[in-house]
Fold this sequence. Notes:
Elements: E1 2-3, E2 8-9, E3 11-15, E4 20-22, E5 25-27, E6 30-33, E7 36-38, E8 41-43, E9 47-49, E10 54-56, E11 58-61, E12 64-66, E13 69-76, E14 79-82, E15 87-94, E16 96-99, E17 104-111, H1 114-123, H2 127-131
Parallel strand pairs: 3-6, 4-7, 5-8, 6-9, 7-10, 8-11, 9-12, 10-13, 11-13, 12-14, 13-15, 14-16, 15-17
Antiparallel strand pairs: 1-2
Amino acid sequence: MIKGKKQEKVIDTIIGKDTVIEGNLKLPTSIRIDGKVYGEIDCKGDVFIGKDGFVEPTIRAKNVVISGEAKGEIHTSQKVHIDSNGSVSGHVTSAGIIIEEGGMFNGTSKINTSKTKSNKLTTEPSNQESLS
């Protein structure tokens, strides 16, 4: 278990340092990656990429914490956190992004907020309005 400030986070799956996975992973809980994953990760919990970890091309998760390297696309419902040794190359779509001093981010980011979503909803025509 990894203890957070307010709650404990349970990691049910760990990919070891010398492990290489080629293929897609779908998980209902959190995962820690210390090896290499070449494939899509679809995780309902959090994804932790250790300092020796590498993931390419896509991560979908609640939160992603990168101490190693991620290339491609990262989609989170909450935050992406790039540690001081972490590196991300690609596109990030998230509610927030944290980059510690020394962390590297090369790519584009899109920050989703509830305000942005509500503005989008009010500017698009509604099917109900056209039926009235």
